[in-house]
Structure formats: C-alpha cells, structure tokens
C-alpha cells in the first residue's frame, strides 16, 4: 500500500465526521474542528488528566502482565495445574469492573490504588492466554533434546519455552495496552479526584458536547499510541509481526466425569480463595462479604432474589442481541474485506478507532446519539464485541488451505464459492475463539451502559447498591455477573466443539 493510499481512509473518515457534525448543528456530535479547538483552548487540563490516567494505567499494565507471566510460568512448570490456573484466571477476568471498583475504593481509600488494581485486572487475562499458547508453541524435538541432556522443566522453560513464547507475549502486551487505560478510567469513575475518567463524568453532567468528544478523541489517541508503540518495539525485537492469538486453550478436556471433576475442583478453589483471602487479610465484613453471607442473602430473602433475577434478565435481554450483532458485524466485515480488499483503507481505520475509545468514554456519546433506550445499550455491546471478532476472523480467513483454493480455481469457482466452501469453514475456529473471549466484554459494556445511562439492569443495581452502601446486594450482583459470563463462555465452548467436530475436526482432536 502506497503512503497516499494509507492516508486516504483516515482522511475520508475525518471529512465524513466533520460533515455529519455540521449537518447535526453541533447538538450531539462535535466535529474534528470543534475537538481541535477545545483541546487547543484547554492544554493544561488535558495534559494533567492524561498524565494521571497514563501513570495509573502503566502501573496496572506492569502489575497485571507480571502476574500473567508468573501464572503462565507456573502452568509450564506444573502442567497439571494449567486447567486450574486458566480457570481461576477466567473467573477473575469475568468480575465486573464497575462492581469491584466501588469495593476497592472503600477498602483502599481515595488514592490511586483502585485505578491501578482495575487496570491490572483488565489486562492480565489478555496476556496470560497468549503466554500459555506460546509456551507450548515449540517442536517436541527441542524438548527431547533438552531431556536427552538430563535437564528438567526449568531448563526447558529458560532455554526453549521462554524464547518461543516471546512473540506471543508481545502480542498479548499489544492487545492489553488499551485495556489498561480502560481499567484506569473505570477506577477514576468510582470517586477519584483526577484523570480522564473524572473529566468524562464532569462533561457528561454538564452536557458539554465538544469537551466530551474531546475526551473520547484523547482516550482513543492514547490507546492507539500505546498500541502502536508496543507494536513498533515488537518489530524491532522480533523478525516478524506478533501473531494474532486465535484461540485460548480449552480449559477442560477428557471424559464427562473428568470434566465434571475439574469443574468441581475449579469451583471449590475459587470459593476457598475468596473466603481465605478475606480471613487472612482481615477485611471488614461490612464491605467484603464471604460466600456464606452471599448465599444466605440470595436464598433467605425472596425480595432480594427477585430484584437480582429481574435485573439479570433485563441485562441479558440487551446484552445478548448486542453480542450477537457484534459477532455478525465483525465476521461480516472480515468476509466483505476479503472479497473487496479495496475497502480496507476506509473500514480498517474506522474499526481501529472504534476499538480504541474506552467504553466508559463511548457510553455517554452513544447515549447522547441514540438515547437511553435499548438501542444505545445494544450498540455499545456490539461495538465492544465487533473489533476482536473482526481481527480474529480476518486472520482465520487467511488460514484457508492453498491447495484447496487452487483446486476450486481449477474448476472455475469464483470468489463467492471459495468463500462459502473453503474460507468460511477455515474461519470458524477463529470466530468461536473470539466469541468466547468477548463474553466478559459484552457483559461489561451492558452493565456500563446501565450504570451510566439507562438506569436498569445489573449495572444500575450495582450503582445503586454502592451509593447506599448495600454491599450485600453489590456482592450478589458481582457474583451474578461472574456466573453469567462463565456460563455463557462454557455454552459457547460446548457449541464450538459440536460445530468444529463437523467443520474442522482437526481443531478439537484430543
């Protein structure tokens, strides 16, 4: 692609953006000129907010990725622990940030601690999964050579696995960089004094449209800059581009009895760590609830149970359509660009920009454009799911076997038939992988929209519970969100196996 062609798409998007802003009269959409003018008039305010958010995101990025690397190393040294490690990591990743944020704020006070912890929680899983894949992405002959010298797993890790995992690690770091900024901004939403999240709340309440769109542009620019910087570093360290991780490891394998036993072990480990952590750290039981407290509140109070189930039903009623729409849009755009590559210059920059704006900044903007009804929430969920699906499906379409495509061409089959019979079946593993990985993001988007705008569902229930110090209900809602995410994840994994057994059996062999 020539330099001129590379900049044609972004330039066209800027022109379209400005045209839409002028057509709308500036009531709901601020154009590039208004955003540039606001930023030019408020350099000090913007710079200070960016510095605070970036510092917190950087600390969380380092801590979260350090934890991910440590867990991956444990799994490599003790392979039998991999299912447990990955399962517990998934459970923690499914915790809703908007529920853990208020709890962390109460426990850690008004400082920067909650922002850093939430940033770490937002990034560790996206690095752990590539690391687990990279530590196994080595020829077995290399391991045989190490063992022939009488060396053990530590030598394998240091001399073979660590080097093989470096491309995957860099890919995980690149993916997790925007997530760190999201986590820091969510923390700022829970009572911080400084940062981009604080300014976003302020401008939303004031209905300051140019300022609010400026915050979105700054957050997106910051995410894109960090993403690009890690990619640049990766290209300097590695001979090729970091790989796209198509599929996380399947957590549970084996017979039904074995899978049931592993699931029970995972649940027992999660409950034990939850309860033991509270007791060992001596946390205040008013703020931090133990498993028996949560169970007693759910089963002992019909009103509490009814309120929780009603809120969960409302959240799922909007999260599921948005989730399915995001999958369909991501896969559909990947297929379209494979058939019409000339559109990539326009569509790819738009997709990157949509992904780079943190959801806590996107939510007020979407609500202003679409209102507080179902359309805004469904759109937010679709935007969160769209980009990872698009990236994974693009990579999956490239996995179509060349000899089979040549066979179709020899029979004069056109691009449409090749897509239908070869490329789309090759894309299915990537599509299912992105579907599983996007479940927590979809629930997060729905609850953030409910928290900030719609006033219904689990997001609103968590916000109200935190505002009136009803920490029992807050913990109930947090457990409900985690269980919903984990069950949907498991359901998609079940459907994936059934479909791939027919369409791509090599992907699910033991």
UniProtKB/TrEMBL annotation:
<feature type="transmembrane region" description="Helical">
    <location>
        <begin position="373"/>
        <end position="393"/>
    </location>
</feature>
<feature type="domain" description="ABC transmembrane type-1">
    <location>
        <begin position="312"/>
        <end position="489"/>
    </location>
</feature>
<keyword id="KW-1133">Transmembrane helix</keyword>
<feature type="transmembrane region" description="Helical">
    <location>
        <begin position="54"/>
        <end position="77"/>
    </location>
</feature>
<dbReference type="InterPro" id="IPR000515">
    <property type="entry name" value="MetI-like"/>
</dbReference>
<feature type="transmembrane region" description="Helical">
    <location>
        <begin position="316"/>
        <end position="339"/>
    </location>
</feature>
<feature type="transmembrane region" description="Helical">
    <location>
        <begin position="260"/>
        <end position="278"/>
    </location>
</feature>
<feature type="transmembrane region" description="Helical">
    <location>
        <begin position="116"/>
        <end position="135"/>
    </location>
</feature>
<comment type="similarity">
    <text>Belongs to the binding-protein-dependent transport system permease family.</text>
</comment>
<feature type="transmembrane region" description="Helical">
    <location>
        <begin position="211"/>
        <end position="230"/>
    </location>
</feature>
<dbReference type="Pfam" id="PF00528">
    <property type="entry name" value="BPD_transp_1"/>
</dbReference>
<protein>
    <recommendedName>
        <fullName>ABC transmembrane type-1 domain-containing protein</fullName>
    </recommendedName>
</protein>
<keyword id="KW-0813">Transport</keyword>
<feature type="domain" description="ABC transmembrane type-1">
    <location>
        <begin position="46"/>
        <end position="230"/>
    </location>
</feature>
<feature type="transmembrane region" description="Helical">
    <location>
        <begin position="346"/>
        <end position="367"/>
    </location>
</feature>
<feature type="transmembrane region" description="Helical">
    <location>
        <begin position="84"/>
        <end position="104"/>
    </location>
</feature>
<feature type="transmembrane region" description="Helical">
    <location>
        <begin position="168"/>
        <end position="191"/>
    </location>
</feature>
<feature type="transmembrane region" description="Helical">
    <location>
        <begin position="473"/>
        <end position="495"/>
    </location>
</feature>
<dbReference type="InterPro" id="IPR035906">
    <property type="entry name" value="MetI-like_sf"/>
</dbReference>
<feature type="transmembrane region" description="Helical">
    <location>
        <begin position="427"/>
        <end position="453"/>
    </location>
</feature>
<keyword id="KW-1003">Cell membrane</keyword>
<keyword id="KW-0472">Membrane</keyword>
<keyword id="KW-0812">Transmembrane</keyword>
């Amino acid at each position: 692609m020539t330099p001129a062609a590379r900049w044609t798409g972004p330039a066209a998007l800027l022109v379209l953006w400005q045209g839409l802003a002028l057509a709308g009269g500036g009531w709901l959409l601020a154009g590039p000129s208004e955003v540039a003018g606001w930023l030019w008039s408020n350099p000090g305010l913007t710079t200070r907010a960016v510095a605070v958010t970036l510092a917190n995101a950087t600390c969380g990025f380092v801590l979260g990725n350090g934890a991910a690397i440590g867990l991956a190393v444990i799994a490599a040294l003790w392979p039998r622990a991999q299912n447990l490690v990955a399962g517990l990591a998934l459970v923690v990743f499914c915790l809703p940030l908007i529920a853990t944020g208020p709890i962390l704020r109460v426990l850690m006070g008004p400082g920067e601690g909650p922002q850093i912890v939430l940033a770490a929680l937002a990034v560790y899983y996206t690095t752990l999964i590539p690391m687990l894949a990279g530590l196994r992405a080595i020829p077995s002959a290399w391991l045989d050579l190490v063992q022939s010298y009488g060396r053990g797993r530590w030598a394998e890790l240091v001399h073979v696995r660590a080097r093989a995992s470096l491309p995957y690690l860099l890919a995980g770091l690149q993916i997790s960089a925007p997530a760190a900024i999201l986590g820091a901004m969510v923390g700022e939403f829970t009572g911080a004094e400084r940062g981009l999240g604080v300014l976003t709340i302020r401008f939303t309440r004031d209905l300051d449209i140019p300022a609010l769109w400026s915050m979105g542009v700054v957050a997106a620019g910051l995410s894109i800059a960090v993403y690009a910087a890690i990619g640049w570093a990766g290209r300097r360290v590695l001979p090729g581009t970091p790989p796209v991780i198509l599929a996380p490891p399947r957590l549970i394998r084996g017979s039904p009895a074995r899978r049931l036993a592993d699931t029970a072990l995972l649940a027992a480990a999660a409950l034990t760590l939850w309860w033991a952590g509270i007791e060992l750290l001596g946390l205040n039981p008013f703020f931090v609830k133990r498993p028996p407290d949560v169970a007693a509140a759910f089963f002992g109070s019909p009103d509490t149970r009814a309120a929780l189930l009603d809120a969960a039903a409302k959240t799922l009623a909007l999260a599921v359509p948005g989730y399915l729409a995001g999958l369909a849009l991501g896969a559909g755009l990947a297929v379209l660009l494979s058939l019409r590559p000339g559109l990539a210059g326009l569509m790819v920059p738009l997709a990157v920009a949509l992904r780079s704006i943190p959801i806590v900044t996107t939510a007020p903007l979407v609500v202003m454009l679409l209102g507080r009804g179902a359309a805004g929430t469904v759109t937010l969920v679709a935007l969160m799911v769209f980009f990872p699906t698009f990236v994974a499906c693009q990579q999956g379409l490239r996995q179509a076997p060349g000899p089979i495509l040549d066979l179709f061409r020899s029979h004069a089959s056109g691009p449409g038939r090749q897509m239908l019979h070869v490329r789309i079946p090759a894309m299915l593993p990537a599509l299912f992988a992105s579907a599983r990985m996007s479940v927590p993001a979809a629930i997060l988007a729905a609850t953030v929209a409910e928290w900030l705008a719609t006033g219904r569902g689990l997001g609103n229930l968590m916000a109200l519970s935190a505002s009136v110090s009803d920490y029992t209900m807050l913990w109930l809602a947090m457990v409900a969100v985690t269980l919903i995410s984990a069950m949907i994840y498991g359901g998609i994994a079940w459907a994936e196996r059934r479909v791939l057994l027919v369409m791509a059996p090599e992907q699910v062999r033991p």
